[in-house]
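Researcher: Hi, I'm a grad student and pretty new to this. My advisor asked me to get structures for two proteins we've been looking at. I'm not sure of the right format, so I'll just paste the first sequence and hope you can take it from there.
Model: That works fine. Here's the first sequence with its structure tokens right after it:
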Amino acid sequence: MRTTWVAAAAIAFAIGSATTTAGAAEIRLAEQFSMGYLQFNVMKRDRLIEKYASQRGLKDFKVSWQRFNGPVAMNEALLSNSTDIVSGGVPGLITLWDKTKGTSFEVKGICALSSQPFLLNTANPDIKSIKDFSERDRIAVPSIKVSVQAVLLQMAAAETFGEANYAKLDPLTVSMSPPDATIALLSGAGGVSSAFSVPPFQFQQLEQKNIRTILTSFDVLGPHTFTAAWTSARFRKDNPELYAAFLDAVKEATSIIAADPRGTAQSWISDSGSKLPLEMVTKVVTGPNVEWTMTPAATMKFAKFMRKVGTTRNEPISWKDLFFPEIGDLNGS
């Protein structure tokens, strides 16, 4: 089944590539609903990919942007050649790396984007810790089982209930985009009493007096990469100038975030159509545990857990196995 699935994906990719490479070069980028992709907002605003691609002599190329909810939809888009570079939590990268390892359609990470905690918030006054969840509770996550929130919930369950019970809370999870999860949590719609969310929505939730945090991802894992970007080895090979331009653009965008967090916050508001106040979004950008960085952190902790519980078949030797070599000189983990 696995071989057939990957082979079908490779055929679809080859057919799509034959169509797109006949005309202008194109790079299609996908992001999700959160503030974990601020480099993408800055890159769009300042046309940084276009800047560096032009510096490399490319004249006839196109940069396009897409938005998905959750790693499943994005990975499917990557495999079907509907997009070229996707971004999300580390488990989404590990899942596709594992499925495509050793094939002609191998997928690896390009770089990290940020390190920051996400929060498990609840509106149920009876829940003090994950031990208190009952079968009546529903926990919203971006994607069940494979999103970074879902995997962290499994890691927390393994620590609390024993490794054999790592999936104990899985039946309580429901897939919702962070905006929809916030609406559901605030209103109680669909029985959603808790949400393992993302910034800024997790902080928007906490503005309600009846909502509080019972767990953070840093409680479970320590500082870790929240968002990363990945692509196929074939795209990297066939489009070296665009790939290099993307890396340079991420590097400059990361510097811009540090130099101008307020301007970056405004870019996110404008790009996402958010109604949140600029002061609140700026506070999220500059949070005490927030780091905008291309260096991967704690990726092997995710990989080892996923292999141990059987979610994946393969375990990388080191974090460098998960990423293409251009960032190999960084002090990753």
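Researcher: Oh nice, that was easy. Here's the second one.
Model: And its structure:
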Amino acid sequence: MPKTREYTAQFRFYEELNDFLPKEKRKRIFSFEFNGNPGIKDPIEALGVPHTEVDLILVNGASVGFHYQLQNDDFVSVYPVFESLDISPIAVLREKPLRRTAFVLDVHLGKLARLLRLLGFDVKYENNYDDPEIVQISVAENRIILTRDRRLLFAKAVTHGYWVRSTNAMQQVDEVLNRFDLRDCIAPFHRCIVCNGEIHPVNKKLIQHRLQPKTIRYFDEFFRCQRCDRIYWQGSHFLKIQEKLAQLL
């Protein structure tokens, strides 16, 4: 049988997409050898970059979608997702950005989940979620996947996801806020940091039987989680939370 002809294309990845590449390929033009005419998504992921991290592909200066079939001598420029920049006149690679910002996090990001909830964001997290369950939740509920496992983002069904680079929870928050341009969306004390339920004011008389005598005496304003029924008030723990918020912001 005749041997399949081997072709070569030139690739250049920009900004944080270089995090996924080996050092010798970062921030520079490099050659990629291939056979046949694969869809452009296949070589991008073969190079280690999840499709969820990509929002713009230029081939020989023209924008293309994931359906484009790579040709010999193509010059391919690959750019990250522009959540804070509207590039709709160009061929974007997913139907639309998720302007209702909600997340689902993998098992490695429990501390990040609590901190994002503290800032008022809708965050689904359980420490026993497996990868297929996370993907199913993301697709069914239009949630952005945040993960420390980049392999999770290679699932074909995933449309919105982000590989969290840092291992430090405070730095992770800063990373997510910047990545999705969310600083104007922060609304502290709107969600339960334990279960993600919404928090609303509650009449003191309705929950008085659940409070300690000193709490009844010194505090009058209370809030209750609509999901897990946890009670919040501005006690000493509230001051600690305020300190944590000051560090985050």
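Researcher: Is there anything I should tell my advisor about the second?
Model: You could mention this: The longest strand covers residues 6-13.
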